[in-house]
TrEMBL record:
<keyword id="KW-0479">Metal-binding</keyword>
<dbReference type="InterPro" id="IPR002403">
    <property type="entry name" value="Cyt_P450_E_grp-IV"/>
</dbReference>
<keyword id="KW-0349">Heme</keyword>
<feature type="compositionally biased region" description="Basic and acidic residues">
    <location>
        <begin position="18"/>
        <end position="36"/>
    </location>
</feature>
<dbReference type="InterPro" id="IPR036396">
    <property type="entry name" value="Cyt_P450_sf"/>
</dbReference>
<protein>
    <submittedName>
        <fullName>Cytochrome P450</fullName>
    </submittedName>
</protein>
<dbReference type="Pfam" id="PF00067">
    <property type="entry name" value="p450"/>
</dbReference>
<feature type="region of interest" description="Disordered">
    <location>
        <begin position="1"/>
        <end position="46"/>
    </location>
</feature>
<dbReference type="GO" id="GO:0005506">
    <property type="term" value="F:iron ion binding"/>
</dbReference>
<comment type="similarity">
    <text>Belongs to the cytochrome P450 family.</text>
</comment>
<keyword id="KW-0408">Iron</keyword>
<dbReference type="InterPro" id="IPR017972">
    <property type="entry name" value="Cyt_P450_CS"/>
</dbReference>
<dbReference type="GO" id="GO:0016705">
    <property type="term" value="F:oxidoreductase activity, acting on paired donors, with incorporation or reduction of molecular oxygen"/>
</dbReference>
<dbReference type="GO" id="GO:0004497">
    <property type="term" value="F:monooxygenase activity"/>
</dbReference>
<dbReference type="GO" id="GO:0020037">
    <property type="term" value="F:heme binding"/>
</dbReference>
<keyword id="KW-0503">Monooxygenase</keyword>
<dbReference type="InterPro" id="IPR050121">
    <property type="entry name" value="Cytochrome_P450_monoxygenase"/>
</dbReference>
Amino acid sequence: MGQTTTRSDDDSNPSTERTADGADPSTKRTADDADPPRPPAPGGLPLLGNVYELASDALGFYERRAATHGGVVRYDVFGTESYLVTDPEAIRRILVDDHDRYEKGAMPRDQLGGLLGDGLFLAEGDDWREQRTAIRSAFFREQVAEYGDPMVDHARRAAASWDDGDVVDVHAAATDYAFDVLAESLLGSDVERERETVRAAAESVTERFDTRRLTSFLPAWVPTPTNRRYRRRLAALRSTIRDLVAERRAAGAPANPGEADDLLGTLVAAADLGAMDDDRLVDNAVTFLFAGHETSALGLTYTLYCLADRPAFQRRVRREVAALDGDPAPADLRECPALTAAVDEALRLYPPVHSFFREPTEPVTLGGHRVPAGVVLTLSPWAVHRDDRWWDDPTTYRPERWLRDGAAGAVHGDDAPGPAVGERPEYAYFPFGGGPRHCIGMRFARQELRLATATVLRRLRLEPVTTDLSVRASANTRPAGPVRVRVRDRPAEADDGPAAARSPVGGE
Ligand code: HEM
């Protein structure tokens, strides 16, 4: 496609800077198109639509639909008209060029509204814009770099708790790790005092949204034991956050969101500047805690598992991080292209967010098809990341695909996920969404995944125990069972040294 991508430092909108790209004319904005056809609508059952296929294997359903019927295809869920969009150019139009013709819509609000309220994740229009502007400084490069210490410290602690030969469930370990990092980044030094309240709420949220429990499909007000616990713990969390906010105000919070030491400080300063009221402030604290917890935990789980399963590439990453002066600092990550490739490839093969939704607020033309207003559009990183039109051997973990080995050694962009785009459209890879509403925590998450992986691999070698990873579509892309690896003390230099260095990368 011959397009290049540059991304700005402030990270507010990575995708609007794309150069003009000669996209398929059928995907251009065409209010006056001569009546394009509706997308294909391969049949489902009357009334139920495609519910059965979705409930039994949503990820496989998305993949098969996209492969068989193309980039925009209809499906139905209990009479709700839905379209799976997997054409990268159509995705770019929805998220970037024409983003103002779409909203997140009713589906995410119905599922998550009780938890996330009117915070950044669910807000729409001017309300969203104001919140995003007020909060974005917390995710500027310099600010995110400040969270490097907790990211490394907690990884060091986890690695120190494992002995040579231990079998570890990396999903459980990564879930604890991501929680600790996020809680500390959100609450700073207040975290010790409030850890139990926050952890109890996090556990209840996971339980409430676990799609393996039938009761998860009941609304939160139905008084099942799980729901009662969930409501009680969420109320306790919100009240704790309110108390902390009051304490910070009493102690004189910074007046400028950019000067705060942690995420809560940014939110308090933004509220004091009038960008949001106190209810929104609490909604946003809860939003960060939950939008950034399971997603990062899954990203780390899949990175560690995939590296355990690819010993030669793991060795390459270990050599890279062993060459650092000590445990990594955020600035060191620029020198770690193989590490970066390892993480970005894990997010390709197992994107933690397998799909997300938009609704057009007016009739639109997508991929040459007419799509009515108000329907559900499902954008699926899972299906697009596994499309063999964009990816060779798409179901294989192959981080080498991100590396360009030049005279100066391997290079891989530090700043944005993905390689220099060239041979594939930009939206063939979008684990963090795109356009103005891309993940505000993207830089935080990519730094966290790399610092944690580097810290672990400077001490330990990972061997796979689970040999056949299987995943399922819950709210996110969850493993179907424990993800076990065996940890080994880092090998003597002889094992990791020149002999290993000569072994071809990729050949196991
Ligand atoms: C590997 C980790 C992560 C992945 C894969 C991920 C993925 C995503 C995706 C796909 C979206 C866009 C959803 C949409 O457009 O409907 C999103 C939005 C968002 N993410 Fe993340 N995320 C990650 C980590 C984080 C972290 C660490 C935080 C916070 C500290 C965070 C906070 C948010 C918020 C607040 C939004 C909504 C932004 C807005 O609408 O303006 N995420 N994320």
